[in-house]
Amino acid sequence: MNLRRAIAVVAVTGLGTAFSGVVAEAADRPKLTISCSKAGFTGSVAIYGRSGPNGFGGTAPLADITKVQYKIKKPNGGRTERNDVFVHYRPDLEQPELRYRVAKSGDKALADNKWHSLRLESDSTKTKHPDFLVEFIFNTPDKDPRCTNHKRL
C-alpha cells in the first residue's frame, strides 16, 4: 500500500514538472508582433506580457508588459548601426494623439536581423486591450526613411 502511494506521488510530481515546463515555454512567446518596411529595411517588434486577471485581456483595467524586443533587417549596403525604434501604446483609438511610451532604443538600434531587448519605460498599460504603435527610423547616408505600424491586442 505504501509503495502505491509513493508511486502515485512520483507520478503526480512528474506531471506537475512537465506541465510547468509547457507553461514556461508558452509564457515566453510574444503576445504581439508588429512589423513595417521602408526602403528595403524591415523592422519588427515583439511585445511580451502576462495573461490572466492582471494581464492582456484580463479583468483588470491594465495589462502587464514583461519584455519588448526589436529586430531590423537591412538591405544590402544598408547601415547596421544608429537606427531608432519607438514603441508606444494608445488606450483609445478615438484619441490617436494620446499615447504612452513603452520603450525606445535611442539612436542605438542595430540592423543585424537579430532580436535585441529594449529597456522598458512603462511595464503596464492603462487598458486591457491596448493598441501598440511602433516607429522605426532607419539610418542611411541620405534622408533616413521611417515607417510606422500599429496593432491592437
TrEMBL record:
Keywords for this protein: Signal
Highest taxon above the source species: Bacteria
Signal peptide feature range: 1-26
Protein name according to UniProt: Secreted protein
